[in-house]
Records
---
Amino acid sequence: MAKLVVIHGQSEPQELIVGEGAVLGRSPECDLVIGGPLVSRRHVRIFRDGDGYSIEDLGSANGTVVNGSDMTRAALRDGDWITVGDCQLTFLLDDAYTPPQSALLLDDSMPTVVDVVDLGARAAGAETLDATLAGKLKARLDVLRAVSERACGALEIGRLVELALDELLRVYRQADHAHAVLMGFGEGHDDLRLSVTRAGRPRDAAGMSRTLLGIATADKKAVLAGDVSADDRLEAAQSIVSRSLRSTMCSPLLMGSRVLGAIQVDTMEPDEPFSRDDLELLVAIAGQIAVAAENSRLHREVVAQQRLAAVGQAVSSLAHCIKNVLNGLQGGSYIVDLGLRDEDNDRIVKGWDIVKRNAGFMSEMVKDMLAYCRKTAVRREPTDLRGLLNETLLMVQETAAQKGVETALVVDGEPPPAAVDATGIKRAVLNLLTNAVEACSEGCSVEVDLAADPGADSVCITVRDDGPGMAPEVRAHVFDAFFTTKGSKGTGLGLALVQKVVEEHKGDLRLDSEPGQGSAFHIWLPADLPRQQASGP
Amino acid sequence: MTDASGKKILVVDDEPDAVEFVRAVMEEAGHRVVSASGGDEGLAKARAESPDLIVLDVQMPGKDGFTTFAELRRDAQLASIPVVMLTGVGEKLGIGFSAEDMGDFIGEEPEAYVEKPVDPARLAGTVAELLGG
């Protein structure tokens, strides 16, 4: 039976038995309804195709991705990853998802190399085995717990696998080396190969045995060579014999029926070959590592997608703003052309004003963009904030007066000079004031307050207006880069920039706003110099 | 001048410079222009002025072009006025925004779309075609 499971994203239901076929898309008539602006109404279908299943994009606007590649039609295999818009799904051929350790079977009838469980060696040490049985069981539980705890905590896969290999050397006291191969998990999708060697033992530069890796990954079988030297069937496995290994075992890393790689443990110690119990524990640990590896891969994918989405959002927002400015420039020059043709001076002036205004807007936009992206250390110097605020207020006063909006600067007491980056704070306050004036209509007022808090050594700048205020859904996103309520006039960078400046000062930014009640932005800034700068030259 | 000249055009855009641009293009084609700076004002002007055609910007603060268009179509007095939508919305959302998708949002489609930045000849041609038909 085939099943689709939603791993990430909005959809209903969260799981779907595919049966003969299923259509995925935004339309409520689809078998699996997926939300989001990137999803077409009928986006993609999955259908029975001979003995298996196939997937076909239904001409969606934004395409379908299977295992990281765009496709129009493809055969589906168990464990395949499907991306539709922001939604991530996995395709499973068995409805009963089986964890890797129980999915794995030891195959005693394996014809080549190593199905050898060396019972003779174990019988010889029978009395010690009984005596250490409880200890062994406890060690197993310990190692499983340790690996699964680390599997939950560490998302960097290389580090996680190293920890797990160390754990293997701890639990298999006779082991000299532990190796892991994770296919496609390395840089540039190369295989990730890691090995650890017990302190004081010879290093094994060759890494994992290719013979064992082949059996583990191609046949999905766990492999045990109890006593390599005693087994004449191992002649083919030169890589094992030539390294003086006496006993070795290997388990695939399985996620469902997908092979992610394999782990191997070996010993050069002739008296302590690995047992079938040891192999079973290795299989269980392999299961934990596989889950962790898969988590790490998913995490990496989500981060990459979020990064791409953020870049896409930035580029499209900027493109939109630039288009609006271009529209203004084009409009202005069109009007200038008409004026020149008709020798109509008023028209020329009118068109030219439009050109200048839009060039100015573009210039402000570029300044905001650069200020938002710049990663320079702020230079805080004692600054007369009253003077700075007065200057900044003057910059918006003309626009405010034209709209019939009153402006005022209110200073509480005699605030001491504060150590701020004057350019950054001026830009931040100017953005807040510009927003406030734009939000206000005739008869409203905009006020800047400056108050010092001597007890806490901080100053507070408040930009307050009695304009329309903000709805909760606007308030929630108001500091997000590229979020704007100004239609074509906004870049969505103004408030994001204010937040950045305040964070650079290790200050605090808060917003009070309710619909119909106006808005107040409070900027708290530490008044004193940061220690490293104060003690500097 | 064709038969389509001398009509009354309502331009709805929050950006005064964009209004002036469209006004210049329309006046050049011999039309008269009334303007509104937002969706609500646009609806009121449409009722008061009974324009022959409406040029409507999509991206406006407050009542956006989609909502304004949907309300125009719901109003029996206004539903038959042809609408040219000025759009850069596909770029804004970063997706291929088709007419079908637009239909999804507002149930109906405007008579024509013109992309910003506006090409004066294309806007004039589109309006002439709609008014001359």
---
Amino acid sequence: MDATEIPLKAPSVSTDVPTSNVEQIERALIDASTRVPVLMFYTSAIVWLLIGTLLAGFVSFKLHSPDWFSNVSFLTWGRVRPAHMNVMVYGWASMAGMGTAIWLMARLCRTVLRHPLLLVAGAGFWNFGVLLGVGGILMGDSTGYQWLEFPPYAAIVLFVAYSLIISWAVLMFRFRRGDQIYITQWYLLGAFLWFPWLYAAAQLMLFVVPVQGVMQAAVDWWFANNLLFLWFGAIGLGTAYYMIPKVIGRPVYSYHLATIGFWTYALFSSWTGMQRLVDGPFPAWMITASIAATILTIIPVATVGLNHHMTMQGYFPLMRYSPTLRFTVFGAISYTVFSALGVLISLRSVARYVNFTQASIAYSHLGLYAFFTMVIFGSMYYIVPRLVGREWRYASLIKLHFWASVYGIGLMILMLLAGGFLQGANMDNPSLAFSESTQTILPYLRGRSLSGVLLTVSHFVFAFHFGLMLFGLGRTSSVPTFLNPVETEGSEVHI
Amino acid sequence: MKGLIPLVLGIFGTFTFSWVGLTVIPNLQIGHLDPQMDEEGTDVYPAPKSGMTERGRRVYAANGCIYCHSQQVRADYAASDIDRKWGERRSAPRDYIFDRPVLIGNMRMGPDLSNMGKAAPAEEENAPPAGASPAGAPSASPAGPPAGSANQTASSAAAPSPAAKPAASLAPAGASPPPSAATAPVATPADKTKTDEYSAAWHHRHLYSPRSISIDSNMPAYRFLYEKRRIAGDRSADALQLTGSEAPPAGWEIVPTYDANCLVAYLMSLDQSHPLKEVKGVAPAASPAPAAPGAPAAAAPSPAASPAKGGQ
């Protein structure tokens, strides 16, 4: 590990730092160079987040009140649902993740961002691609492959956009300073390389030289699961590996554990996916291999979890003050829960009941929201003040954002899991009519809609707060915004 | 760690391992299957579908039916799909070789549709799948039980009893085993509109107004696939038979668009009842009547020879 990189001495955007501190000026320059592209990624992501949240609420309510807007083709449930999913996956999560990844890369490569216009153009194309894709889905052009509903013309735009973005990443590595590559960079480099291969492989095998019959479903779920793990998972874990040590000012507990965690993660999590097709029309070995891989992901989960836990040991009280730490640690813990649930529902004896139920939606949300999105929120609370030169205005809004998100996602997952298990149990009992199983879950779906209200509040509060920062209405202060008043001994910590 | 090269090679290697293992090798195993034929080469299964049916598949995909309906039957030891009469045997890769996109799904907020077409009443299977004919023809087929069994879909509140005469099968009396759902106070259309369950007319009605067929359904209505128009001259043959508040005002009628007809043709083409050599059937079925090669799958096994399903 690069010992000079972590811990940081102080947050550093203000230009009036003592000139003696060359490192700080250097960091300020790097931050300044990432300012426009990263803020562009973040702003786009947050706009997509709001759109996706509204679509999600619509989907959730319509699932138990199906008669809404049944005259309007582009508001039918079966179109809005994939629109919501793709907005969240490609609009919000991917863009926010790329924004954070760009900033982290620049920091860790210790080089100013060259050619920021390349990235701005990339972000613009990416937005255009998502817009085109979501528009296509709503107009009835969905491809019918889950997680890949964007029609091919939108997929091409996304790919062009991504090429611009990745060519920047290559440049960044080309000009990096120092030989050491920090663990976060491993994950980010992995994510940046895995994503285009994944996307290209899936597009090729589904649209260019399409595979036959059920192999399309296999390719589709292979892509979906790897997108979750090798793209979002890798960015999320990399971010957590940076933010936790950075905020508490203490190096990662064990670098060897981090190495083991990375390689086992890459090896095992990439083989999961087929367990979503359990007992379907596939050779049983494919599904068994994925179940085995899912169980083996316990190894990277345990090493990463242990590493974070030991790093945090004795520093947990800091979560009382630091927004970044609070969101990031919540996300890191959710990662463990997400993986444990993944192992549980992949087992054949459990999958018999939960396959084909809402429990699989709970699983996706646990991964994409409780883990990834929360980590990214945390990183935004850290990064945005360093880009705009202002501190977050209201600690109360951050607290509201945090608790509304936590209660919202917690309620949603509980509802979908409990409802999903009951739905599956009823579905597996052939003496009950099928409609019994869908009737059973309706109360839980209403509960899920309630959680949607909480999440909507949380996202709009965050967007408002971010907007204040963007327009320069944050606090001018050299002290970061703490969630609670800091006692004197805590003040040396860099939150 | 120093050195970018080992890192990039490792990243590339793990990806390739997964890609080869989970997509390339399975593709060698099941990616190049041919239809099954008997010795004479007449009994071909599966057969490619007609153009209208394929368009129906696009409508199905575009409107996200896959997010609630699966099209795969799991084996009897793995789940109770077969007990639910969603099929007689588990689905196999060969069932899907002409499907693009393949729509096996992974969610069941609605019932499985693998054998939806098999459930159609007898004369429907010989009728053109357009749904253009006044489907629930007044004299329902004397052939008797619709091939589908009582429990085929939950949205069926009034399930046909195989023993009953066709007309009687429309009454909710001979309902499916669980009385709780079946006796739900459905606004039963049986007396006014002669609509056989799972006939084309039934599908249109169900798509237009799901809760007029099953009060418990939480399927959205697909009214945008239907057109409300003034009756010019005679009432159209394919106009929906609607009652109560659903019915259009006098002088108007609701007719399916071309997309709706395609979608119904597609739904009625879904049929995995043909035995496959690689799958052990639960019931050793009588050999189905040969289907003409290249014929729309909707017209697949003739009802006379098709095994009496769900023999209850």
---
Amino acid sequence: MKEILVLAEHRMGELRDVTLEMLSKGRELAQALDAQLVAGLLGRDVAVFSETLKKWAHQVLVVDDSKLENFNADAYQKVLGDIIKKRQPGLTMIGHTSFGVDLAPPLATQLGIPLITDCVDIQLKDGAPLATRQVYGGKLISEVSFVGTPCMVTLRQGAFPVEESDLKGKIAAVDSPLTEEITCRKFLQYVEAVVGDVDITQADIIVSVGRGIREEKNMPIVEGLAEAMGGVLACSRPITDSGWLSSDRQVGQSGRTVKPKVYVAVGISGAFQHITGMSGAETIVAINRDPNAPIFSVAHYGIVGDLFQVVPALTEKIAEAKEN
Amino acid sequence: MDIVVCVKQVPLTAEAEVMVDDTGRDIKKERLVFDVNEADNYAVEEALLLTEKFGGTITLVTMGPESADKTIRSLLAKGTHEAVRLTDEHFAQSDAFATAKTLAGALKTIKFDLVLTGCYASDDGYSQVGATLAELLELPHATMVTGLQILDGKAKIERELEGGTHELLEIELPAVLTIQTGINEPRYASILGLRKAMKKPIKVMSLKDLGLTENEVGRAGSKTILERLSVPPKGEGAQILEGAPEEVSTKLAEIFRERGVV
Ligand SMILES: Cc1cc2nc3c(=O)[nH]c(=O)nc-3n(C[C@H](O)[C@H](O)[C@H](O)COP(=O)(O)OP(=O)(O)OC[C@H]3O[C@@H](n4cnc5c(N)ncnc54)[C@H](O)[C@@H]3O)c2cc1C
Ligand SMILES: Nc1ncnc2c1ncn2[C@@H]1O[C@H](COP(=O)(O)O)[C@@H](O)[C@H]1O
């Protein structure tokens, strides 16, 4: 393998974390394979990012085009597809982000190359990449290989640590192959997250409720615990999907990232998309009746039991403890 | 507006113990309950809302075993019109690409204005089939759709990004959209609907009906190979507090008190 290509991801003027995470993993693989690590940077007026990227790559390819100002999978597919056809990188890495899941599948299909999505690790086995993924909500892991190279992966956000790097990569401008605007798909605008009356990102104590609560009429059970603890109520995605709490209360990848002193997860299984938003909490307590729930692997304290019995009892004990 | 919805029957594993079978490449299915993939349920609801507004038919397409009929019927019971099940021993061990290839083969035999899929299957979680299907059908696509409006042959779409941010875009139809959970409120089937659905035919198609060869489907048509499934190594994990609810609550309240939380 001569080359590993990493697609830099940025949005609204900021390089997204997954970019340096991918480059860090990419550098490790490039070293093992004696390959060049190349960062692909597509956008408009993105020179600022190339200064950062060159520390993490042997080369930074910059395609600067007003038609790439906002992410458009069709435009990116054309540009990146041309680069891959020309340079034939053995491995292309894209973030497993909203942006990556929109781009990578059609791109790999167009190129006729294998794609493994949402990888949490990539190892080399006899010189060929072998991907590790999580399946069944994190209850099992799978190892997946590619049928031939070149190949493509999308990497899970937050799964790869950023390693310091001081490469002095060359920056090279590449002409944009886009001759006209893409018409079948048009970006209109971003809609930023709403901030409601309670900002869970600022809370010290969070009681977070998941699908285990079963019905909206049961919500007072967890509200009571939050109140007794002097904390705020947050939730996993199914609760906001059902409209039982507003979206600004949702913790996780598509919700908020919180760092409270205490996070009590009630009836939450611990899917990665949830964990990524709360694993930074100082003390994590999980209440779940499934002893194999993945939440117990990030929690510090666990109670295996029925929340409908445990939460009311806990609420009472905390109220008592406060009185003393 | 004629709509195809691709739906997958998946095991419900949030509360079940998931065990690897003897092949090391699949799970033991005997004790698991199967139902429609969560996101696909929202895709079906979106299709129902659109056909209620614009007329037209909804065709469900699934690749899976005969036992998927139970799930298909529960969706027919909500008022979707037709169903196609793709079943053939050659489809076994399909990766996301081979799955999309097989679905595309079926879709070439159906007339539609819009294709909806879920954005993510809760079993293998590729988030890949829908957008791959779009490329194979040479149609525009948008993934992780959380809002959809149809106006003059175009779709105005809200897509979910990270951290609560969304983007709005416009896309020409026909297109393939992958639907994210929370876009609507899926309805429940009525008893009458369920009774009617028992009588609706489910069309079964096999490899020879799809205009594809053995080498294009299943493991032979896959570009990736699942080598091994395993239970993740137990990390340090939580300190489990043991005892009756009263007892564990006392212990936890004490821990909170020591840490100055309450
Ligand atoms: C692109 C994408 C983005 C996503 N973003 C987010 C996000 O931001 N945040 C998020 O949370 N999810 C997100 N998800 C969804 C995520 O994958 C999971 O589906 C979700 O987190 C599951 O929520 P849950 O744990 O509440 O429900 P489930 O997984 O259904 O778990 C319910 C849990 O409750 C337990 N339980 C049931 N009854 C009881 C009882 N009586 N007592 C005790 N325990 C009980 C069960 O054992 C189970 O562990 C996203 C998914 C995708 C594809
Ligand atoms: N076997 C299948 N039959 C029908 N649709 C499927 C199948 N597998 C995946 N899909 C569709 O593709 C979506 C995304 O799946 P995945 O890419 O595996 O996460 C699902 O939500 C379904 O709508």
